[in-house]
Amino acid sequence: MAAPLELSCWGGGWGLPSVHSESLVVMAYAKFSGAPLKVNVIDNTWRGSRGDVPILTTEDNIVSQPAKILNFLRKQKYNADYELSAKQGADTLAYIALIEEKLLPAVLHTFWVESDNYLTVTKPWFASRIPFPLSLILPGRMSKGALNRILLTRGEPPLYHLREVEAQIYRDAKECLNLLSNRLGKSQFFFGDTPSTLDAYVFGFLAPLYKVRFPKVQLQEHLKQLSNLCRFCDDILNSYFRLSLGDG
Amino acid sequence: MSLVAEAFVSQIAAAEPWPENATLYQQLKGEQILLSDNAASLAVQAFLQMCNLPIKVVCRANAEYMSPSGKVPFIHVGNQVVSELGPIVQFVKAKGHSLSDGLDEVQKAEMKAYMELVNNMLLTAELYLQWCDEATVGEITHARYGSPYPWPLNHILAYQKQWEVKRKMKAIGWGNKTLDQVLEDVDQCCQALSQRLGTQPYFFNKQPTELDALVFGHLYTILTTQLTNDELSEKVKNYSNLLAFCRRIEQHYFEDRGKVGV
Asked: What sequence ranges are listed for the domain Metaxin glutathione S-transferase (chain B) (predicted)?
């Protein structure tokens, strides 16, 4: 494919190419399917766009949101799933739905809502990559967006209080991690020996949780006990992202 | 509910057997109930039929407000009230009836994943169609939702609900979707379900599970509900094994027992 594919996304840290789950999903998929992606990391100049990241730009298209970007890449013949059977393709959709429903609220909470984590890690990291004065506004807005999403999707009566919602979402997330670990078992990837879309999604959501150093770490501790999921993340990092490690 | 309260409820649930007078509450069938609530209610009814537990369906205009979680349907068993399929499955399990005990860990994970898929895509698409598609809202939803109440309460309640649903759609990223994209998603979901079902009678071969009840509830309601256009049901009709699946469950669990589900 001659047309250059450029991806704007949030940058990396703690050994990851990107700290943002959705950006990481797209980067992982591109590596798995062999798509030549030029990654433009958002920095604190005014050049980059910040809303709705990750965004894929080609000569005549702008595509946002991971699901749409992956569809676009598939249409361009960069398909990581062609060896999957129809049932495995269906399983992929189902497990992605499971991750978005059960794991995502807790990941959002760990990064954006838990105040110790947010104030000491997330906010400074993102603020340093956004130009002033937007750096004063945007992290706060992202945090509110995350809280909103959690409360609107999970905070229905009788769970009125945030504390109870928190307990429920962390329980669901731990159960989801256990289910993923059971499903992965001893295999290298979720469907055989080659990575596919599901591996990209799982990696995208688990790797930041696994690697970023947080003060409040209950979900991270749980993940670290599931050694096959940790091995899965490390394997992908070592095989596919070794040459382009982010800053420490 | 909190962990302690849940453990407590489980204990109480386990203590008593299933009574004869268990009731399921939903909104008024003819005039008020909407597609998504009907689907949820049918899923619970199908699940209870599959477990062979008797249940009486009672229609009340204020079912949504009676429910402890604000969602229908809810069941009243003994002196406990439990709403929504997930908690009801747990409650029934505490009483000693379960459809998914025979599954191994990987199958249980798959079952949970597919249930989330249905909730994530089918239920959200139904909500979108009902509350965010202007044609449907104007012609069907507003009129139905507020029908038991006098003016102006009927309009106020309908607008309030619409605002809530739109907020939620925006938060999960469905706010900017067009109807065509939503129908695409429904098609994808049906394709995944169809591929998973294949030629088996139920999703986990010989025995139905809560996943079968949930899928039946949604698909049957989509197929039999009259909307402004038929696009939604057409998407489902493309998959003949799903149609056969619905027919099979309807015959087996509803017609044979002398009850009609919807």
From this structure: 187-249
State the DSSP code for B24: E
Tens of pLDDT, residues B146-203 = 888 888 898 999 999 999 899 888 888 888 888 888 998 999 999 999 999 988 889 8
- Write down the pTM of the prediction: 0.88
- Residue-wise pLDDT for A17-69, tens only, equals 888 888 899 999 988 888 888 888 877 666 555 567 788 888 888 888 888 88
**Tokens matching residue A70:** 């992956």
CA-nearest residue of chain A to B199? A87
Q: Which residues of A touch B188 (CB under 8 A)?
A: 93
Q: Is B79 on the interface with A (CB under 8 A)?
A: no
Question: Which string of DSSP letters, residue by residue, matches A28-86?
Answer: HHHHHHT--EEEEE--SSSSS--TT--EEE-SS-EEESHHHHHHHHHHTT--TTTTS-H
How many C-beta atoms surround the C-beta of residue A200 within 10 A?
Answer: 26
